[in-house]
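request received
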Amino acid sequence: METHMEELLRILKELRPDIDFNEKKALIDDGVLDSFDIVALVGEIGETFDVQIGVEGLVPENFNTVQAILGLINRLRDGE
Amino acid sequence: MSLSSASFLIFLVSTVALYFLVPKKLQWMVLLAASYFYYLSYGVKIVGFLLTTTFTTYVGGLLLGELNSRRKIRVKQLGREASSEEKKAVSDRFTGNKKWVVAGILLINFGILAAIKYYNFAAENTNVLLGLFTDASFPKVNWLLPVGLSFYTFQSAGYVIDVYRAKYPPERNFFKFALFVSFFPQIIQGPISRFDQLAHQLYESHAFSFDRLKYGLQLMMWGFFKKLVVADRTAVIVSNVFGNYQKYSGAEIAFGVFMYCIQIYCDFSGGIDIIRGIAQILGIDMIENFQRPYFATSLSDFWRRWHISLGAWMRDYLFYPLSLSKPFGKLGKYARKKLKGNLGKILPVSLVTFIVFFTIGIWHGASWKYIAFGIWNGGIITFSVINAPVYEKALKRLHINPESTCWKLFQILRTTVLVFIGRYFTRGEDLMTALRMLKRTVLHFDLRNLAGNVLSLGLGAFDLLVILVCCTVILGIGYLKERGVHIRKTLEERNMLVQWLVLLAGLAVIAFLGIYREGYIASEFIYKQF
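response:
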């Protein structure tokens, strides 16, 4: 069974096959992911992890690295 | 008191002097007093609108902050053992109340904006429809138009939404908050700043720094150069061609519109440079509002580089909330099921993009021409998003390397043409005039006519040469900046003689080539009216 990290990486890879997400440390600040990517990513994460990312969660700190995205998912799953 | 008037310069020097002379903890009060003094110079009655926005958004922020704190405490009280469903139920209850508060505050403020900017337009068009059935009609109202209304309303609304989203706690000091809304260099034409980026800088104390003074003055000079030497010069041809377009052939009209493209960029970005330069002298770094839009490779890239703060506002407060809303979420699911391929995936987000650009269009004003401008931008960007995979395939088939310089140059040229066409709408007297000018450009385009008459459009050979040389300088400097060169720092590395020569040459160019009217007052900035 896939871990959450593997699932997230799979979603990201489907979204942007051209990017090595393990390498990148500033996905938003460096403009790697644009607003279209973010909307698609939020939709996919919502369906896969059964969480709802609201606009208040859409800050660069939550999306700059894969770890940060996973942290956001975990916090939402925890009901915070 | 225009940014490029002599009285503004006197006001600025006095403010800066006072700012660095008073005890540091009073500096923000000097800024607040200066900001209101500056705003009052545009009229006493309009201050009521500014105060209403300041007061309502301040109170709204406090209420939302209180609800945020209570929610946090209640969730904490539930303890670690509570299930995520229980925590969510508590959060949802508070979110419901917060929604009422934020909706009320936004309704008041955007209501004022809508009434002042759009009522007459809506009434006029409704009356046309009503006229078909009845004699009743909505009266026309002569509203006072507070300068900077769109700018400070958007900035304050952004603050309220951020507090609603618990991005930061609200500002408790009313007067400090009033400074954030009214900060004088920016209130008239932006940039639309964010509270977490700007406010703390306004409240902190700043020691005088010679470097900041130097950098700030250089930036201001660059702004004055663009405004007084280029924008106000091109304005002569622009007014003439747009005012008497029936007299001119297609090529001459196109030349006039091209001059307007130069004018609007130099006017708006020049104003922003002056504003950012002033802030820099005061120890405050304001966000960039332009990133060399003339190098944009697509229309969406253009809008990421032009009036950046408005685009970012629309992204954070309109694009994301709409894209992630339930109705659009449902539409997305439906589209993915019913439509195969790329279109199914991006239909909702494309629709939101269209709405955003449509809104940016009407942000500029209430007129059919701005609606057309919004549809033009929104339509093209949405179309290119939907067809992106088709373009990719076509490039591969034609063996075109998308990274090659030739392709990039083609993209820049293509974008320039699209922006150029959009400018017919923003500057044309009204929608029909813009369309007639566009028609004339296409159907009666004769370069020989332009070559023969270029000197009779309002400017002589010398002035046209000045525009050409200045635009080359602006493009050259822009190119260096695109390549990551920090112009002001590079200049600093040269010896003092070179630095002084550049400074004096700049001053001389502004002094001798700037367009001044009686009393050394230059023309107003175009974006002030928005």
